[in-house]
Amino acid sequence: MFDIEIQNENAYPVDETRLIEAAFNVLTMHSAAPNSAVTIVITDDQQVEALNRQFRDVDAPTDVLSFPAEKLPEELAQELGEPPYLGDLVIAFPYASAQAEREKHDLMDSLALLVVHGTLHLLGYDHETPEDKAEMWRVQAESLTALSIPLNIVPALEAVPHDDEEDNRGSDGHPSEDDQKQRS
Question: Left if phi > 0, otherwise alpha if psi is -120 to 50, otherwise beta: which for 58?
Fold first, then answer.
């Protein structure tokens, strides 16, 4: 029904089936177009830090970055007959692993949360305003519940400062609301 690819060139110990299930759950719950495609890249902190610097002007690693694909014009999409490509999720395994250990969370639950969160971003959800955040957290909670992931994992990962950053960054690297207020 969906084309979910895992790229794990460093052979990090992940349950690929669980990550695919997390993305599949979100895509199904949000009625994504049939055959929609997503790529989940599991990589190192240095690659994620470089991407974070290049695309977000943040010179630090983070746990997950989402890169939504540009939507093809309808005529071109029909002509090519290609399924919709939603985009890429890039997860820094060492960073996410250290984060899970620090918070005493199951690593695969933490990685599945990152996939759920990132996939929601690919579908257009965001948390830049309190209203958007409330809606995103609501639908994220639905997916986590369906995946039997404890909901208390979310606030902990969203509010804890990382050792190598001055501010608090959420599960997608965005500054927390408190950080944004301090910078205003």
Answer: beta
What the chain holds in terms of domains, given with CATH numbers, is 3-183 (3.40.390.30)
Which is nearest to 90 in space by CA: 40, 125, 124, 22?
40
User: Measuring CA to CA, which residue among 103, 108, 81, 78 is closest to residue 93?
Assistant: 108
How do beta strands 3-7 and 85-92 pair? Answer: unpaired
**Alpha carbon 40 to chain centroid distance?**
9
What pTM value is reported for the model?
A: 0.82
Which helix (H) or strand (E) segment holds residue 46: the answer is helix 45-56
Between CA 56 and CA 175 the distance in angstroms is 11
CB 162 within 8 Å of CB 156 = no
pLDDT range class, residue 49, cuts 50, 70, 90: very high
